Structure formats: C-alpha cells, structure tokens
Amino acid sequence: MTRRGPAARPMRVSTEMNKSFKKVLVANRGEIALRIIRALHEMNIGSVAVYSDADRDSLHVRRADEAYRIGPPPPRESYLRVDKIIETARACGAEAIHPGYGFLAENHEFAGACRDAGIVFIGPTEENILRMGDKLTAREVARKAGVPIVPGTRNPVSDAAEATAKANEIGYPVLLKAAAGGGGKGMRVVGAPGDLDSALSLTMGEARTAFGDERVYLEKYLVEPRHIEVQILGDGKGRAVHLMERECSIQRRHQKLLEETPSPALTEEDRRAICDDAVRLTEEGRYLGAGTVEFMFDSGGNHYFLEMNTRLQVEHPVTEMVTGIDLVKEQIHIATRGAIAPTQEDIKPRGAAIECRICAEDPFNSFYPSTGTITRLRTPQGPGMRNDVGAYVGAEISLFYDSLMGKLIAWGKDREEARLRMTQGLEEYIIEGIRHNLPFHRWLVACEPFIEGRMDTGFIDKHFRPELAEDERVRIQQAAAIAAAIEAVEDRARLTPPGESGGRPLSAWRTAGIKTPGR
C-alpha cells in the first residue's frame, strides 16, 4: 500500500546535489524518521517511509512522499524485517536506506544485505560495524591506536570460574558487559565475589535474548565517572574530524536522559586530548560516516575509551545547535561522495546546548514506561528552542517501541542561558493523557548540583527521590485546577448578556469571547 505525503514540493536547484540520491527509504519510525525526512526534503531528495500497523497514522508517514506498510506492530515482524525493508526499497526504486538509530542501525547483516541488493546503506560499512560495533574488537583498535581503555579482559569469559579469576585480577567492583551490547542493555555491576556467578548467568542470558550473542567480558567498574562522548565523521580512508564532545552523565539504567555540549567538566586541555583520541581511534578503524566515540572520565581528569556507537545518536541535535552542521546531511554527503565536507578548521562551535529526552515513563514509579493515548500536546517555542517530536494528539503510546516521544533542545550563548531557556521551555511543555518525565526534567535543571555542573553517571540514584519532585506534581495539578477555573469563569462571562453580569457592562471584545490585554 502506498500513501502520498503533502502536495509536491517545488524543485530546488542546487549544484551540490548533482551527485546525490533521488529517493531514500527511511527504515525507522517516530521522531528520528521525521527528522531524517525533513533533511531529505531540504536536499530535494524523495523520501520513503515504512510503517507497522501501529504507526499507520504517524507523523513520519504523513510527511513522507511515499509510505509502505511492512507488517504488524511487533518490531521483529516489521522494523526488524531485513527482507521486507530491502524488498520495499527495491520495489519503490529507493537508491539508499537511512536506518536512523536503534532497530537495524548497527546491524552488520542489514548493511551487507543493502550492499548485496545494490542499495546504499547510509552509515558505516559492514566491516566497520563488525569491528567497531563489537566492544571487544573496538577495545583492540583503541589499544592499537594508543587510546587509553578501561582495565578489563581482552576476550570474553567462558564460564564462572574464568570470570572469578579475572575479576580477582581486575579488582572489585567489576562491570559485566555484553560484547554485542548497546542502549544500556547487557550490563551489570558486581560488587562482591559472591554475586558474580548469578550476575554472569543473568547477563549472558540477557545478551543472548537481546543481541543473539551471549559473549560477555569484564571491565573495572569506575566509581562516579562522567560519561563523555565525541561526535566524529570519517571518510573510510583514514581521515576523520570531530565535532566536539557531549556530556551524557545523566542516566537511568545506563540510558541517557539529558545531554549537553560542551561538557562543564572539561578544561580546554582535557577537551583537546579526548577529542584527539576520538579522531585517532576513528582513523585507525578507517571508519566511514557519522559515529560517536564514548569515554569514561574520572575525578582525576583521566579518560578511558568505553565503546563506539556506529550510528547517529539520539542526542545529535545538541552538536548541530552549537556547530551549525546538519549531521544527517553530512551522512548523506559522505554516502554519495566518500569524503568529509568540513575540515577540522571549519568546525567552530558557538555557545552551549542542552537536550532533554521527553519519554512516556513515570519518574514517580522508577521511570516505569507509560502507555495510553495522548489527549493534549503543546510544545514550547521561542529563541534558541528546537523540538524534535514524533508524538501527536491521538497517538497511541504502546509497549511495542521505545518510550522516547521527542526531544527538547535549548541553545544559549553559554551554559546558563541554555539552562534558563530549557527551564522556560519545560514550563511551557504540556502533555496529557499519559504519564511522562517532564516533572523530572523540571526538577533536574533547577537542582543545585546540575546548575553547578556537578554530575556523574550515578547522579539520579544519588540525588533524585520521587518526593523531591512531588512539589512539581502538586504544582502541575494546582495549575491545571486554576486554569480550569479561569476557563469556567470566562465561559460563563461569554454566555452572560451585556447588562446582566451583575456589575459593569462587558466590553464587546469580552462578549465576543476574546480576551482583552492583561486579562
């Protein structure tokens, strides 16, 4: 089934697009699919959406030039169907596929299937994903490039006995990690020898279920580190550039909730060292396209390579806000030209940006996912504000997909201006019909440790308690009650004829139901 988007857009003439694609299929959903489709429209490239039955009326389907059903709601029957997506791309004449993030974005078999079908995979090569997407082989590339890594095993552990021996060498606490893991899955902290056997069994089982690969290795668990990542672009031939770092320490269950750039923790010397290491690693791995090199940064100012994400990141907008570089367009440029457009000297960051992930989850109940129908949605506007939103009024939020509904990004000339703009934006944001994490974000950007830039990966466990944000929930309820009361009074006033109001006559503006200034 094919659905057409808006009326045909006027042709835009651009000599730089002479070598670009005519049509690209976006193998994703939600806000990231919509964001990619917008970039394609700006580049005068035809956009193709795919959707499951649950997403038939989604914004990315409405916005695309063409849209095709690929299956029922469960991802394994739709968005993870390599064969169906390739078949759809070939049938509609798409020359390339953009995977977004999640789903098939870091699936080397999907990248290989695209290549075999004569379709360009807008992302790294199959070899890049195999080499850099696997945590163990990526650590070897880092070691070869002279990039510091967290102490740990060079190979996966085979059983509990070997794991125990290695953990004793490394020293507790240790972190069990799935070699093929990602998105915060397949990770478990072990604080004492007596907990290792059961933790290993659980982690291997989780890795097998989530990634089809039960290999697990050990790393030294760094206490209270910061999570710093560096955005890179590589040409696949040994040249790379960085687009500065992002601070990603605010996490729950190893998944990020807020990101910002630049990091308030880094000195210029730290920043130069960590970004140079990211470039060196990328060049050593001959990486193609956009990717992220992730580091742990300890209280002593030392950084250690953690892993590489071989895809576009959820938090890429903060980098775009401070550099002015559209990362999706750069991915497409690299895929068509095999070269990086900007030089390192071209990249001149300006100001600071903060991103809050707006999720359908209840911060008052351990961030448990929320389901239901969105009955009201109002996103904030104003200077320095950006909304990447995939949700809409009437959208059904289910457990089939990730809880991320959208992202709010605020830019300012410095961190404090960005924070104040984010504070205002969160105050204006309204979502009704489901539980969401806006109360948490409002608490976060106003709490003293965050304002002072004092954070680490244990920030939420250390500082956040539901009762601390309870005042926020009460305030929201009170505001809603006051708004309802005001609306009721105004409705009554509109229905009361002039001269019968019991007081002075109402103005014609009020009688017509239009608020007067200051009312």
Summary of the model, kept short:
The protein has helices spanning 30-42, 59-63, 82-92, 108-116, 126-132, 135-145, 160-170, 196-211, 268-284, 316-323, 327-337, 415-428, 438-446, 448-451, 459-463, 470-495, 508-511; strands spanning 2-4, 23-26, 46-52, 66-71, 96-98, 120-121, 174-178, 187-190, 216-220, 226-235, 240-252, 255-261, 288-297, 303-309, 352-359, 361-362, 368-369, 372-373, 376-378, 385-389, 396-397, 404-412, 430-432.
The coarse silhouette is globular
Task: Please give the order of strands in the largest beta sheet.
Answer: 14-13-10-11-12-15-22-20
Secondary structure: number of strands: 23
Helix content: 25-40%
Q: Would you identify the CATH H-level superfamily of the largest domain?
A: ATP-grasp fold, B domain
CATH level-3 fold name of the largest domain: D-amino Acid Aminotransferase, Chain A, domain 1
Please describe the structure with a list of short key phrases separated by commas or semicolons.
519 residues, D-amino Acid Aminotransferase, Chain A, domain 1, disordered C terminus, Rossmann fold, Dna Ligase, domain 1
Q: How is this structure best described in words?
A:
This protein has 519 residues and is α+β, with helices and mostly antiparallel strands. It folds into 4 domains: 2-122, Rossmann fold; 151-220, Dna Ligase, domain 1 (2-Layer Sandwich), CATH 3.30.1490; 226-453, ATP-grasp fold, B domain (D-amino Acid Aminotransferase, Chain A, domain 1); 473-511, no CATH class. The protein is built from 17 helices and 23 strands. The chain has an 8-stranded antiparallel β-sheet with strand order 14-13-10-11-12-15-22-20, with helices on both faces. Helix 4 (108-116) runs antiparallel to helix 5, helix 6 crosses helix 9 and helix 12 runs antiparallel to helix 13 (438-446). The chain is globular, with a radius of gyration of 25 Å.
